[in-house]
Amino acid sequence: MDLMSRLIAMPPFSMPQHQKDGVMLEGLRELCLYHLDHCEEYRRLGKVFDWNPAEARCAEDLPWLPVGIFKTHRLLSVSEHEVYTEVVSSGTSGRRPSRVALDRGTADLQARALSSIMTGVLGKQRRPMIVIDSESVLHDPKSFSARGAGVLGMMRFGRRPFFALDHQMQLREKELSGFLKEHAGESLLIFGFTFMVWEFFLQAVRRLGPDLSSSILIHSGGWKKLQARAVDNADFKAALSSAAGIRRIYNFYGMAEQVGSVFLEGEDGLLYPPVFADVVIRDPISWRPLPPGKEGVLQVLSLIPRSYPGHSLMTEDIGVIESIDSPAAGRLGKGFRIIGRAPESEIRGCSDTFSPPSGRMSDE
Amino acid sequence: MNEKKLKEAFMRAFDLSPDRDFEALGYRKIEAWTSVGHMRLISEIEEIFDVMLDTEEILDLSSFSKAKEILAHHEIDFQH
Lengths: 364, 80
Description:
The structure holds 2 protein chains of 2 kinds. By secondary structure, chain A is an alpha/beta fold. Chain A contains 11 helices and 15 strands. The C terminus of chain A is likely disordered. By secondary structure, chain B is mainly α. Helices cover 54% and strands 0% of the residues of chain B. In chain B, helix 1 runs antiparallel to helix 2. Chain B is globular and about 30 Å long. The termini of chain B are close together.
């Protein structure tokens, strides 16, 4: 069995960090060499910056790309005719969206990876599912919005999906009420984007008052809009617990450029990388890795991307590692938090002059 | 009998005609069998056979013969 198949077959949060460090170095080095061989632009960057993955002593030594590069460049490590679909990030207004191209192999790996993470908290049983979104996010399978990819990916873990919003993004309250009555007492899977869960679902269950104490809520998409309303993770959980008794609530952090590789919240409220992914926090000036407790720019590592060189990406988010192999969490590896978006100026600085270990680069 | 029901599920999910070569169908190999189409196929199969597949089976169900193999684990017989 190859490395990735072995990792996907393992429980997702079962690897101590010292072992993970070795696995990531081996897997990422192989991916770096693969993409240098298969992606013309990646190879050019490697030449300019004198990348030398074979000599890396740890995963932190390996090169990375700024996540924004997928907004401006189409980086492919397969031929055009092998491209099966694209994931397109929603992209904040006025900015270009990211596009990453998937072949069948990478798409399949993404699905299996996500399944290994989610079955860790959901088990194999598929629960009746409420999607806090509109069915229209699933249209046009030739190119998926990140939201559509997220919804579709999660739908595999539920059954008889009920979409709680209509095409105008209005709550289907009457139908939701009917669905809740039909499945009263059952354990449901509820999935939606964090802000939409707060905006639509919380309001609805406050009015309808269902007992969802055996249900599981999974949500993602970022806290920016809720931070503006001074709602944090603890407030979010408390509100849903008091409105509907939901106690099993899991946030995850992930991005369109690394679909399938998500960081799922543990019982301690921290986010954890699965066995085939990891995070590094870096100082935004020196780009040196920072120890736990220090805030810096979040780099995400994943062994999934093969059709495009997205295995090592510098995000535009600020984060901090709070613990490593913490016994309290019941999960091994790095437990981290996202603090928020890097300031605009810093992002530009980051993607214009991001600095791989051996040099500086200005955006082509 | 069950073979016919399974064909029915594929026909409904992907809008296929009955004379189609079902054995040649594959996930992501025909236009309609996209990841969205896949979820439609799963719900058709679950409804027609009154079974519930688990997540792993959903990921493995990538062809007509694979569907028969998976359903056989749910005591649905394709021999007769």
